[in-house]
Write a sequence for this structure.
């Protein structure tokens, strides 16, 4: 039996990459939650114990399910009242005697709009969107358990996540990519494999109470990313459209409302992380290579059978 057990509340895209990485190490048991019964079945087929959980459906037997957990990752989206895991299971989590590390996946949106300035982890938390406010509230909830009960909580503020199957390459293939021009505006991003790097490094070097910005080295306008993705796919590059002329959903509009550049020095100096993909160019090239490799494996398998 392994002496390391990761439990992920909200076993989604990032947690799946993390679970895969830890499984490769050979001494980890992986389990987590999902809201979808079909996904639960698919996870179980991959030897990942999965349980149904959401804000209206707490774990049926949390003491049994969480027993032996050494590492806990919370990736669930918060509501107006904060994090649903905190609301439903904070007391249960405090009873886990084996717990060594807790991670909460937050967002750089908690910093709000900074007019394009750089921000690091010492910056004031002052969200300007509903999404950012919810994450800030959830951070406060989890950190309160560090201060009151010594729960080994770590906060990870993620820039825009992308990776294979979830990148500008996919929006271009789907025909929904737009090149929006808002002068002076930039986004910070992070490849999912580099998120996993940081999480693993933190597990190896716990520092309860620490907050980490997770982003690459290059904040850039979204239209530059779309242009480069088009070049990689050898597709026509969409025309640049002024921000004022674009009809956007409230969600997309909220992303353009905040403008900041994210400092990532702490993950390097404190955790010793060297990013695999230091900018969107390297990241998109890796996404395309991973997709092409998967296609080649699929074709080879079909030939064999």
């Amino acid at each position: 039996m392994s002496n390391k057990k990761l439990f992920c509340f909200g076993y989604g895209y990032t947690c799946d990459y993390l679970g895969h990485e830890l499984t490769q190490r050979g001494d980890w048991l992986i389990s987590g939650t999902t809201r979808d019964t079909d996904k639960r079945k698919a996870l179980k087929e991959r030897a990942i114990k999965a349980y149904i959980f959401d804000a209206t459906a707490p774990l049926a037997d949390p003491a049994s399910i969480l027993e032996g957990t050494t590492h806990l990752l919370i990736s669930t989206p918060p509501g107006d009242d904060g994090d649903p895991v905190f609301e439903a299971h904070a007391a249960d989590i405090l009873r886990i005697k084996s717990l060594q590390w807790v991670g909460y996946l937050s967002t750089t949106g908690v910093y709000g709009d900074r007019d394009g300035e750089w921000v690091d982890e010492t910056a004031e938390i002052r969200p300007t969107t509903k999404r950012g406010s919810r994450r800030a509230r959830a951070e406060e909830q989890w950190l309160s358990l560090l201060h009151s009960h010594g729960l080994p909580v770590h906060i990870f503020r993620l820039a825009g996540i992308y990776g294979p199957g979830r990148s500008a390459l996919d929006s271009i293939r789907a025909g929904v990519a737009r090149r929006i021009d808002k002068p002076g505006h930039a986004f910070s991003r992070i490849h999912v494999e580099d998120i996993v790097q940081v999480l693993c490094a933190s597990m190896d070097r716990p520092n309860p109470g620490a907050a980490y910005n997770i982003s690459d080295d290059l904040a850039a306008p979204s239209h530059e990313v779309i242009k480069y993705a088009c070049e990689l796919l050898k597709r026509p590059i969409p025309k640049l459209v002024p921000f004022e002329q674009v009809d956007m959903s409230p969600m997309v509009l909220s992303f353009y409302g905040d403008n900041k550049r994210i400092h990532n020095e702490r993950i390097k100096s404190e955790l010793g992380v060297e990013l695999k993909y230091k900018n969107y160019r390297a990241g998109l090239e890796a996404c395309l290579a991973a997709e092409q490799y998967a296609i080649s494996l699929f074709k080879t398998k079909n030939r064999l059978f």
Summary: The radius of gyration is 20 Å. The mean pLDDT is 94. The first strand starts at residue 4 and ends at 9.
